[in-house]
Amino acid sequence: MLSATIREDFPILSQRMNGKPLTYLDSAATSQKPQRVIDALVRYYREYNANVHRGIYKIAEQATQAYEASRVKVAAFINAPRPEELIFTRSTTEAINLVAYAWGRANVRAGDEIILTEMEHHSNLVPWQLLAAERQARLRFVPFDEQGMLQLHEFDRLLTDRTRLVALTHQSNVLGTINPIREIAAKAHAAGAKVLVDGAQSAPHMSVDVQALGADFFAFSAHKMCGPTGAGALWARYDILDAMPPFQGGGEMIMLVHLDKTTYKDPPYKFEAGTPNIADCIVWGEAVDYLKAIGMQAIRDHEQRLTVYAMRRLGEIPGLRLFGPESPMRRGGALSFELDVAHPHDVAQVLDQDGIAVRAGHHCAQPLHRALGVSATTRASLYLYNTEADIDTLVAGLYTVRNLFSPKTATAPKP
Ligand code: PMP
After folding, report:
1. Do 42 and 109 sit in the same domain of this protein?
2. pLDDT for the residue 55
3. What is d(CA 327, CA 109) in angstroms, rounded to the nearest whole number?
4. How many domains does the chain have?
């Protein structure tokens, strides 16, 4: 069980929104930050702000040491074998683009294929479209069924000796589906393909072990796991990184520069050109410490219990259709739904009046929504600080929406 005082760690949660207590149900978009993470950010700027890997004075060494210590923590968080395998980026998006640009341009040729799924976030789709167009490669897509589960027999059919890469999300930001990465990676490797896992929605919510998953690349963002915005990471196996050409060129990624040629540092520095996002990368380590102290299994258990409760309560609302797997074992706490009487934007706007923050739209997954046959959904997404009371507030708010848009069929939540 998570401590009942966890909410108190997050100062924003004691604020009011539109005169009502804030009910924050949009953690799939970004998570809230605990006070110790906010304090760590202020401490960096007040006490040891300096550029890393350059100065030989005390605070520069302190900043470098904290930056590298954070790399060790973030790498250990996903059980990376070596911290040098973890490249700090701006976000999951930048991490995936790094692979598409640096690995993709060196390894994908005309006629090659990349397998994605129909549930990908645009971040794990558009970079591959750009690469495929440039390389005359082909993208193939694994569909999902009515339960929001990948159709693995289709994956088996699509996987051939032309497949260079299988890139897929670990946990869907819309359906909540947790994909069977280990099984998919084993098959992909047997076919000679590499595997990229979009971990933006899994790393914050469950214990991730990149070695056990069998991934070659794993991309994730600090801001969805109680850390600051502007920091993310790419993990990849060292041998792959070592063989990859750089992503961006500039300061700090070089060994020797001549006017006509340059040699590069070893990973991870080869991929961290210019001044990195020092403050936010350091503070990400604080967020990792915070989550680890609570325990990722405890967080997963809490969210699973809350998801079961939310699915039951949402299921009581007439005209509400929830997407994604029914089994809480197969999903996380992203709960996307449609309500027959109102457009998702109207739903979100009415909920906002009650202090409830949810997201409405396509959640950066237009092809997924097309496959569902809807243009948009409303999404409530859970995290460690949410409670059953948040779900009750949401359900009451949804009855308000129903009754506003369909007064003739007015109903009330069950007591
Ligand atoms: N993939 C998934 C599954 C996501 O949910 C998100 C964020 N919504 C991203 C990628 C992109 O993450 P970021 O915006 O932090 O780059």
Report:
1. yes
2. 82
3. 40
4. 2
Domain housing 267: 37-292
d(CA 89, CA 276): 8
Q: Where are the alpha helices (DSSP H) in 218-277?
A: 238-243
Q: Is residue 414 part of a domain?
A: no
Do 275 and 301 belong together in one domain? no
Low-confidence ranges of the chain (pLDDT < 50): none
Residue type, 334: A
Residue from 119, 364, 379, 382 whose mutation best tests the ligand 1 pocket (most atoms within 8 A of CB):
364
Q: Would 173 be classed as within a structural domain? A: yes
State residue 407's pLDDT score.
83
In the reported structure, the alpha carbon of residue 95 is separated from the centroid of ligand 1 by a whole-number distance in angstroms of 11
| CA of 149 relative to ligand 1 center, distance in Å | 20
In degrees and rounded to multiples of 5, residue 359 shows phi and psi of -110, 140
Q: What is the pLDDT of residue 174?
A: 98
Ligand 1 centre to CA of 172 (Å) is 10
What is the whole-number distance in angstroms between the Cα of residue 6 and the centre of ligand 1?
25
Note the pTM of the prediction, 2 decimals. 0.98
- Ligand 1 pocket list (CB less than 6 A): 28, 91-93, 121, 123-124, 169, 173, 198, 200-201, 221, 232, 364
The whole-number pLDDT of residue 415 equals: 73
Model pLDDT, residue 414:
78
95, 66, 71: which is closest to 82 by C-alpha?
71
Position 173 scores a pLDDT of 98
Q: How far apart are CA 206 and CA 283, in angstroms?
A: 20
Tell me the best of 117, 221, 363, 383 to mutate to test the pocket of ligand 1, counting ligand atoms within 8 Å of each CB and taking the most: 221
